[in-house]
Write a structure and sequence with these properties.
The chain has 159 residues and is an all-alpha fold. The chain has a domain of 84 residues. It is built from 5 helices and no strands.
C-alpha cells in the first residue's frame, strides 16, 4: 500500500500549488475528493457484494444439508411405519372389525344437548323490544326512507 505521512502530503500539496496555481487548486482538490469518495463507495459496494455471495453460498450448502437430513428422517419414518403396520396386522390377526382380540367396541360418544350453547345464549324477544335492540335487519336506503321528513312539514312543526 502507499504510505502517506504528513510530510509527503505537504510535499504533494506544495507541488500541486506550484503546478496548478492558487486559483484552480481548491476546485481541483474538491474534484479529487469527490472522486476518492466515489472510489471508496465503489470498493465498499464490491466488498459487500462479495460477502453477500459468500453468505448465499453458505446458506445454499446449509439448505442442502438440512434437506438431506429431512430426507433421511422421512425415509426412516416410512420404514418404521411399514414395520409398525406389519406388526400391528400380525397382532390383530384375522379380526375384520379392527379391534384387538378380547376387546369390546363401543359406539362414539355424542353429547345429548347438541346445540346447548346456542339455546342458552339466545336473548328473548321481549327484552330486545324493551331495550330497543333491532330485531330485523334493514337496509340503509330503507332506513333513510323511514325517517325522511314528510313533504310539506317544516322543522319544528308538531303536526
Amino acid at each position: 500500500m502507499i504510505d502517506l505521512g504528513v510530510s509527503k502530503i505537504a510535499l504533494i500539496g506544495a507541488v500541486a500549488l506550484i503546478v496548478i496555481g492558487p486559483e484552480k487548486l481548491p476546485r481541483v482538490a474538491r474534484t479529487v475528493g469527490t472522486l476518492l469518495g466515489k472510489a471508496q463507495r465503489y470498493v465498499a459496494d464490491v466488498k459487500s457484494e462479495v460477502n453477500r455471495s459468500m453468505e448465499l453460498d453458505e446458506l445454499k450448502k446449509m439448505k442442502e444439508t438440512v434437506e438431506g437430513a429431512a430426507r433421511d428422517v422421512e425415509n426412516s419414518i416410512q420404514t418404521n411405519a411399514s414395520d409398525f403396520e406389519k406388526s400391528w396386522s400380525e397382532a390383530i390377526g384375522d379380526s375384520s372389525s379392527g379391534a384387538l382380540p378380547g376387546m369390546e367396541i363401543f359406539p362414539e360418544y355424542k353429547h345429548p344437548k347438541k346445540k346447548w350453547r346456542l339455546k342458552t345464549g339466545a336473548t328473548p324477544q321481549w327484552y330486545k323490544a324493551r331495550s330497543g335492540t333491532r330485531t330485523k335487519a334493514q337496509s340503509g336506503a330503507a332506513r333513510v326512507a323511514r325517517f325522511r321528513p314528510r313533504p310539506g312539514a317544516r322543522f319544528g312543526d308538531n303536526g
